[in-house]
Amino acid sequence: MKTAKRNFARTLDLAHGRVEMSHGAGGRAMAQLIAELFAAAFDNPYLATGNDGALLAHAQGRLVMSCDSHVVSPLFFAGGDIGCLSVHGTINDVAMMGATPMYLAASFILEEGFPLADLRRIVESMANAARTAGVPIVTGDTKVVEQGKGDGVFITTTGVGVARDGITLSGDKAQPGDAILLSGTIGDHGMAVLSQRENLTLDPPIVSDTAALHGLVEVLLDSGATLRVLRDPTRGGLAATLNEIAKQSGVGMMLHESAIAVNEPVEAACEFLGLDPLYVANEGKLVAICQRQDAQRLLEAMRGHPLARRASIIGEIVEDAHCFVQMTTRMGGRRIVDWLAGEQLPRIC
Amino acid sequence: MKTAKRNFARTLDLAHGRVEMSHGAGGRAMAQLIAELFAAAFDNPYLATGNDGALLAHAQGRLVMSCDSHVVSPLFFAGGDIGCLSVHGTINDVAMMGATPMYLAASFILEEGFPLADLRRIVESMANAARTAGVPIVTGDTKVVEQGKGDGVFITTTGVGVARDGITLSGDKAQPGDAILLSGTIGDHGMAVLSQRENLTLDPPIVSDTAALHGLVEVLLDSGATLRVLRDPTRGGLAATLNEIAKQSGVGMMLHESAIAVNEPVEAACEFLGLDPLYVANEGKLVAICQRQDAQRLLEAMRGHPLARRASIIGEIVEDAHCFVQMTTRMGGRRIVDWLAGEQLPRIC
């Protein structure tokens, strides 16, 4: 007991220490972890108050709220890690509602024995992503589970934002005749994680596209195009996202394979592993559905933003009572792009 | 593949089925789990839109945000389960900021193989707690990890509320002379979980005090007393909470042991296991610190609420550069109530 107390008085050993059960027990060790790691990295006045919740500014407008747990494995991959991913993912979900993300909450489930050096790397990546995006992490929580009852670190983030006045985007608003736009290449995030997991040595490596898209969304909202739906095609890839929207709106879709960009190394890796990039996760892309006559204007607005240089119009909404998503192939045929039935890539985000 | 597709077309087998990796993969199986279990139980118009975020009402006032991950083990215990606990815990953290909780987000990390029947029981308990509290679960997420990489189910909830105008409560506002009130007995939740975990057969069993405290908080705010701090003494118990506040405010505290109520079976179990109830978690109690001359008025307001019948004035704030929490004991002595140094009861919430 005495030794334990002496330990707590020292500074946390972030270079060689490990997560202990006491870091989640509500006592001195937890207070130290929060002060020396989380509060130091996330550094903002809300968190600094040290209360169990954050008192924020007066809100003006309709609130938007979204949350995501992140369980990606491995925790580090080319182009990112679970830390920045957990910030980008939730910012994007808030932005897809036509809202400006304002605040994030972050909750950690740590496995006993996890190296504090890795945790610091993750927390600093989160802090950097939040700072770059201009969305502070204002409140949080830390729990610790015994070795073998978790997997290093799981991070749940929740975002709150304010919807732009007059804008209501929703997956049930697509109408026959509308155009479907995609902001860039598909499959980069999923294949970056998978190639890391499978120790595929690719040269150059496939890099995750993980990015915060709220700046791009502002540009789209400013373009004056009549937007119906925005959504980021993450788990289940573009195919899952489009099928969801088709079902919500009660419409069909006709896609054009030749308009859907895939980076060459992603295409090669997918072919090698027998995967279809349409079902592979993205973390820095969005699908926009807009009124047909605004498609060109929206496309130009997209391409003017650094995160959407390779944007394209990939298809259109059609009437279809079965809500099928179909695609004209490069070969001139036509196929159905079905829901993902089973499980293609687990723990991709 | 064909078999799999046929399975997904059937209704989810909530009686005998188990969580599969596909339930977190973003495809048809996940959509089915969300529709037939989560959306059905949480049933509200925000969730029903099926978007990745919720578009909520126009907010009026200063926002409050708080989040907590829940990893309690075992998942079910006398008086509650991880489901209702995850709703109460976050509602309480929002309420302690002097705010009315408005919305909850809930994110699930499920372990492959977890029985769907248990998941249903948990989700229905959450839904019931949220409905009773009048705080809807408006958005959520589900992830699945492989067997041995989780522990049944972890639930992270985030709450958003609006602070009452003119009220700013914070742990750094306690002043020498202020009175410290406690809303009831201590140690009930922690000992309920622990006795379940250790298979202690107590008759009658110790029952968790898990409860949503926002109604009680409304009563306290309405009382007209000048409140400084509200906080719920969860992990680390009353001792951790009071030490946190003492440190935040730069003050000392003098408690009176005889004023701190402990249910007899809790006291007996603590004695048997060598635990101090001051360090045992509560999930339906609060500490209130107020101006000395308002203490009696606040006490009467508390006792008028069903969740605080056994409320008492347990001590006062004193000047102390060391920020010590001290206590006059029943024996007439005096002791220091220190921070919890190590780990007493892991995974209590």
List the helices and strands and how they pair.
The structure is a homodimer of 349-residue chains.
Chain A: H1 2-9, H2 28-42, H3 45-48, E1 54-70, E2 76-77, E3 80-81, H4 82-95, E4 99-111, H5 116-133, E5 137-145, E6 153-163, E7 179-182, H6 188-197, H7 214-222, E8 227-231, H8 237-249, E9 252-256, H9 264-273, E10 287-290, H10 295-303, E11 312-318, E12 325-328, E13 334-336
Helix pairs in contact in A: 2-5, 4-5
Explained architecture:
2 copies of one chain form a homodimer. The first copy, chain A, has 349 residues and is an alpha+beta fold. Chain A has 2 domains: 21-163, PurM-like, N-terminal domain (60s Ribosomal Protein L30, Chain: A); 179-336, Alpha-Beta Complex (Phosphoribosyl-aminoimidazole Synthetase, Chain A, domain 2). Chain A contains 10 helices and 13 strands. Chain A has a 7-stranded mixed sheet with strand order 8-10-7-11-9-12-13. In chain A, strands 1-6-4-5 form a 4-stranded mixed sheet. The longest helix of chain A is centred in the middle third of the chain and has 18 residues, at 116-133. Chains A and B meet through helix 1, helix 2, strand 1, strand 4 and strand 5 of A and helix 1, helix 2, strand 1, strand 4 and strand 5 of B.
